[in-house]
Design goal:
The complex is a heterodimer of chains A (424) and B (239). Chain A is of the alpha/beta class and 424 residues long. Chain A has 12 helices and 9 strands. The radius of gyration of chain B is 24 Å and the shape is elongated. At the A-B interface, helix 1, helix 10 and helix 11 of A face helix 1, helix 3 and helix 5 of B.
């Protein structure tokens, strides 16, 4: 039993270190190509862009979201905004109607049908060569669109994902997520270099309209339509780029319950989409996605679950031993403790763990350098390490459990898709 | 449409070798520390071995003339500490040939210490009690685990108690001789020998506690005229 578990442990840690080395090697090879622009610049041309903002019960954040779009440093006549209320039960519809005075904003109310139905409804109104969507809990930096559009100079680029940053973290949980998002910026850029991006995130990914004309609209895709469309694009060899200096600020879940539900939905979506697109796995023509992105996602899920089981096993073993000790000898003060380096664990796995943790922290610091211009160590990193070690196994297990049972993680229920009202 | 990067095997192979290199480095560093630890164990064992040999020699030279000097060099806690480290080493470093050898050597030192201490205890009227404990690591022995906990508890309670642990499977003729003398069978482990009585199976704290305190009382009864100053000094030295 022990030898089997240590063999699995070695294989999984080897693969986890492999993933980190893969990213680091790519970073050292390509770091000069990472474009972080501070100065203002002009584009040769400003193509029309439509941004679809689907919202469901977002009365508190939607105004900020739309205002951030209106503040984009992009010609107003080239920017269209379609706000779609997906049957909200709060005052979202009333709030967004305030924006109908603006020429370039269209607001639509429809019956609740799920995010992808709102997006698809919006797609029907797009007349510009480019489009994007923005979740109603996110805000864009004024330079984001301008910077993203430079990547479309390459005629092969079909979509560009931005860098998502946690907006103003107010508690430890949000701080931990900020650290995680910083790391994701680095990972995404490295995947972009290798053509292996598997998500075009809901907040402000910009697409050529051709993508949807050629490949069809969004799909339900287990409530992670932003993963599915990216996988569909990869299957059709449509190039996805990442623009590290296009910042989109998102409000991270502020409670464990909300974070748990969000992650469970993401992981569930990843697993189900990976199953749906399993035909891509290890096929040479799908490159990095087939040999690295999808397998490494699966490896990380397995590693976390395995580590968690090992942890529970060790804790149980320790508790049983302590109970036995109390039963045999009674509760007594421990005999004098004296530190002896001899008992310091120097097993191979200890040094491998150091390598693994160092590489994860390096990834995080590189991501931060890309965002903030400097390597900065903060308490967020520790929060991230601790909180995610404790919580991630639970949402992973729940997501796997649901994936096995094929139970959908809820974003909102799918019902009628019919339009109720359109204004402007 | 084209992907920006053609799929290249070279990258995967290079990353594999870098990762392998990191793993081999980790294994090398781990081995380095393991070897250091084994070397440390050897050192401790050599020191104890010299201590015991020296005490034996002193004892032979001086015989009954001076008990005071003889007791000075025997440090039971060091021997127990060494036993603990060897056991930890076998669990965490792995049951290597070197550790097995050290364990055999350790068992031999225990027997020598036991014989010497018994003589000293009898001759110099030092208050002490002895437990020989036989266990097995060959099969999963939950009773042995419980018995070890009880003996550790007893040792904490009685600093003058000397517990000598022997692995049944130790491949050493001296240990086999002990097993024969006390008629210990592998089917009846754990086994505890106290006051020359051999008890098989698990025995709870209360039972052994009574036996150990009886053993101490027995000595007090036999040697009522013990020079208390001398006994205290000997005890102190042992601690």
């Amino acid at each position: 039993m022990t030898s089997v578990s240590s063999t699995i442990f070695f294989i999984l840690t080897f693969l986890s270190v492999y993933v980190q080395v893969f990213f680091l090697l790519t970073f050292f090879e390509k770091k000069r190509k990472i474009l972080i622009r501070k100065e203002h610049f002009e584009l040769d041309e400003y193509p029309g862009v439509t941004i679809i903002v689907p919202c469901y019960n977002e009365e508190k954040t939607i105004v900020g979201t739309i205002n951030s779009l209106l503040d984009l440093d992009y010609p107003k006549d080239k920017l269209k905004i379609i706000v779609i209320d997906d049957g909200s039960k709060d005052n979202t519809w009333i709030v967004i109607q305030e924006f109908t005075k603006k020429e370039n904003i269209k607001v639509i109310q429809k019956k609740n049908g799920g995010k992808y139905t709102a997006l698809n409804l919006g797609l029907g109104y797009v007349e510009t060569p480019f489009l994007g969507c923005l979740d109603a809990d996110s805000f864009v930096d004024s330079q984001a669109l301008r910077r993203i559009m430079t990547y479309f100079k390459d005629v092969h680029t079909m979509a560009v994902a931005p860098s998502i940053v946690v907006d103003n973290p107010k508690n430890i949980l949000q701080g931990a997520q900020k650290a995680e998002y910083d790391m994701a910026v680095y990972n995404k850029k490295m995947l972009a270099f290798l053509g292996g991006i598997h998500v075009t995130p809901g907040p402000f990914s910009i697409f050529r309209k051709k993508v949807f004309d050629d490949l069809g609209p969004y799909r339900r895709a287990h409530n992670t339509e932003d993963q599915e469309i990216a996988l569909r694009m990869q299957e059709n060899h449509y190039k996805i780029e990442h623009c590290p200096d296009a910042y989109v600020y998102t409000v991270a879940p502020n409670s464990i319950g909300k974070l748990f539900r969000q992650r469970q939905r993401w992981i569930y979506g990843f697993l189900r989409n990976a199953i749906d697109y399993r035909r891509l796995l290890f096929k040479k023509k799908y490159g990095t996605l087939a040999f690295f992105t999808l397998p490494s996602g699966i490896i990380s899920v397995l590693s976390v679950i395995f580590l968690f089981i090992m942890f529970i096993y060790n804790i149980t073993h320790f508790v049983i031993h302590k109970i036995l000790q109390i039963q045999m000898v009674g509760i007594s003060a421990p005999s004098s403790f004296r530190f002896d380096w001899f008992f310091f664990d120097t097993k191979t796995i200890f040094f491998i763990s150091i390598i693994l943790y160092t590489s994860v922290i390096s990834s995080l610091l590189i991501g931060r350098k890309m965002l903030e211009g400097k390597f900065r160590f903060s308490a967020d990193i520790l929060y991230f390490m601790i909180i995610y070690s404790v919580l991630a196994p639970f949402w992973l297990l729940k997501a796997i459990f649901n994936a096995v049972r094929s139970k959908e993680a809820s974003w909102s229920l799918e019902r009628d898709v019919g339009v109720v009202q359109i204004k402007n | 449409m084209e992907q920006q990067e053609q799929f290249d095997w070279k990258r995967y192979v290079i990353v594999f070798f870098i990762t392998l290199g990191l793993f081999l480095t980790a294994i090398y560093v781990s081995n380095y520390f393991s070897n250091k630890k084994v070397a440390q164990l050897k050192n401790i064992q050599d020191t104890i071995s010299i201590d015991i040999l020296s005490s034996e020699t002193q004892y032979s030279l001086l015989s009954e003339l001076s008990c005071k000097n003889v007791s000075d060099s025997i440090l039971s806690s060091e021997l127990a500490d060494l036993g603990h480290k060897i056991e930890w080493g076998q669990q965490n470093i792995g049951t290597t040939e070197e550790l097995n050898y050290l364990k055999n050597y350790y068992s031999l030192l225990e027997i020598k210490d036991y014989l010497l201490m018994k003589k000293i205890s009898a001759q110099c009227k030092v208050k002490s009690a002895f437990i020989l404990y036989f266990y097995t690591t060959a099969q999963n022995c939950s009773e042995c685990e419980k018995q070890s906990l009880v003996l550790t508890g007893l040792r904490d309670k009685y600093p003058d108690l000397r517990v000598y642990s022997f692995d049944y499977s130790t491949d050493l003729s001296a240990v086999k001789a002990m097993l024969n003398i006390y008629k210990i069978q592998d089917t009846k482990l754990p086994a505890v020998v106290i006051n020359e009585d051999s008890l098989t199976g698990f025995h709870p704290m209360e039972e052994l506690d009574t036996l150990v305190s009886a053993s101490f009382k027995l000595q007090e009864a036999i040697t009522p005229a013990v020079n208390s100053t001398q006994a205290t000094k000997a005890t102190k030295n042992k601690k």
